[in-house]
Records
---
Amino acid sequence: MNIRAVLICVIASLTSACAWFDLGEFEDESVQATVISTDQAVEQFLTGRDLDPIEGAWLQDENGIEIVIARNTFDIAPGYDYVGIITRSDHPKWKQGDVKLLLRKTGSVGVFDGVWVTRYKSEREMTFVAQHRNLVQASYVSNDGNSYFVRIRRMNPRFSRLDH
């Protein structure tokens, strides 16, 4: 293998580790349902069935954005198991029903491959880890070299830290 091929492989592996993810036709997707509030989304998407541990109402503290994570039955981004739907935000770029998060199960319990839509409406591919049933975290290094963290905490249904 020549040096040029090795260099291309190294660059490709480094850029794919924290690559931007293009949702393509799903970029501007919203769940256009009767999503008016977090309580209504919980009622509509989660009530009356057994929930997977990741499902529920979540809060991104830093931005005050409320998200309901539910099974992906919305025909949005096939291949993802869960969709995080914004149910409340004071930020002008976000409206109720916008997709904020996509998650795919991995072989490890509490670990998900996913896409986080940033405040600039750019998609960032990350690995999300449930620290316990009430906290999910992820991080990435941006093109400017700074590290950014995503942290959401469960609002509903709440679980004891001992309840895994």
Note: The first helix runs from residue 3 to 17.
---
Amino acid sequence: MTFELYFVGSIKKMNGNQNLPVLIVEDDKYMNETLCEVLESEGYKVESALSAAEAIKKLNDKSKKFYLLILDYNLGSFNGVTGIDIYNIVKDKFKDIKAVMISAYGNKKIKDTASNCGVNIFLDKPFLITDLLSALKSINLGYNPEQNMNTA
């Protein structure tokens, strides 16, 4: 017997996202928890970091491979490290990694810098969860859980 789970307001069936490894880097504890809960309910394999240091540690862990990063631009007080800096560190290690940048400080300069670095989508805070799910759907179409990510 097979079951398919659907969630109210969901963009995609849960089984379409299973095992898609996501790292959420968001220093606001409540926003971090909310994003984790929503993405887990959508079937994503979620890990999170509340600081740039914690994110870098997880990204350097050789036993972990992430397909998607959700990065807050402004990460508080870790020597001025931003979500863009974290993406720049990791994109050379994981050639196929995708990224969504989220920020309440989304001026044109920051958005252009993020785009030029390869960030796939920039969402201004506050945003609707359905906007985030639509963004993820648009960039995760090529994920194959059977295939290992290309690493440098």
Note: The mean pLDDT is 84.
